């Protein structure tokens, strides 16, 4: 699965939570064997680290990022007289799917040149966080969000691909999103229609009941919620454009009349479309 646009489409449902953040210094006798329950990001400030995952050996050096998935077991040790790095444990979820990132090959070592500005901002904010400055926790969360978004962008541009391999069971689980790609493509092309879940289920080769369960388990939201959010996002863009009437927008998004569209829009944005950009 290479297309990360799902996070942009459902951005309102994306939640990032920082569980812990600190920095450590380890001498050359340090060794760590772990599999985290959440995502773990390291920024190496000094030294060099060897990471073993199954039969593979990876080397991370000063200035590089290391992203660990909860599905990856590793052994880490320093190759220099010491190493120093900032680490941050976090959860990133889409809807109620806490490990949505595991559908993408993001876990690995990344050259900080690909995220240079985002790293600089993150480190500066971490220094404020260490000093317990006002609003530093909120700023740290914002900077981490920007950094993760940049990593995703570089992945989608094929500038980066993580090399840490999951075990075979977890690799199989991470393929579930691939089966829904034809559904995503169809919804995008037919957003102007009144889309039916049964039609999408047939496209995925599943019964409607199983498709709804599969979709929600894989993506964290129901098919209906996914379609609704896409239509509302598109409606917002069209309203900002100011080239179309509410009746035209309703028709462009598959609503039978302006009233149905306005009702759906108000439910989502808490204001009617006529007042949204006024």
Automatic annotation (TrEMBL):
Database matches in PROSITE patterns: HTH_ARAC_FAMILY_1 (PS00041), HTH_ARAC_FAMILY_2 (PS01124)
Single GO MF annotation: DNA-binding transcription factor activity
Pfam families: AraC_binding, HTH_18
Keywords of the record: DNA-binding, Transcription, Transcription regulation
Keyword Transcription regulation among record annotations: yes
Domain HTH araC/xylS-type as annotated: residue spans: 181-278
Xref: InterPro entries: AraC-bd, Homeodomain-like_sf, HTH-like, HTH_AraC, HTH_AraC-typ_CS, RmlC-like_jellyroll
Protein name as annotated: AraC family transcriptional regulator
Source organism of the structure: Gracilibacillus oryzae
């Amino acid at each position: 699965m290479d297309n990360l646009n799902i996070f942009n489409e459902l951005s309102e449902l994306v939640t990032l939570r920082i569980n812990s953040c600190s920095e450590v210094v380890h001498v050359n006798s340090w060794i760590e064997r772990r599999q985290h329950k959440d995502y773990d990001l390291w920024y190496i400030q000094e030294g060099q680290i060897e990471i073993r995952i199954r039969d593979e050996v990876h080397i991370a050096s000063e200035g590089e990022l290391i992203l660990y998935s909860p599905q990856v077991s590793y052994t880490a040790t320093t190759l220099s007289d010491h190493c120093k790095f900032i680490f941050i444990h976090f959860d990133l979820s889409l809807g109620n799917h806490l490990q949505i990132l595991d559908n993408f090959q993001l876990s690995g070592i990344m050259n900080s040149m690909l995220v240079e500005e985002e790293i600089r901002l993150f480190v500066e904010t971490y220094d404020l966080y260490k000093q317990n400055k006002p609003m530093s926790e909120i700023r740290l969360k914002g900077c981490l969000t920007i950094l993760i978004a940049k990593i995703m962008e570089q992945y989608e541009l094929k500038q980066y691909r993580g090399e840490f391999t999951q075990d075979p069971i977890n690799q199989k689980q991470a393929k579930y999103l691939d089966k829904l790609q034809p559904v995503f493509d169809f919804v995008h092309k037919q957003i102007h229609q009144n889309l039916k879940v049964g039609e999408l289920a047939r496209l995925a080769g599943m019964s409607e009941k199983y498709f709804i369960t599969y979709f929600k388990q894989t993506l964290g939201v129901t098919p209906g919620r996914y379609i609704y959010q896409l239509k509302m996002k598109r409606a917002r863009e069209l309203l900002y454009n100011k080239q179309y009437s509410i009746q035209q927008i309703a028709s462009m998004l598959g609503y039978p009349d302006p009233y149905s569209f306005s009702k759906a829009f108000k439910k989502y944005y808490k204001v009617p479309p006529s007042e949204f950009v006024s």
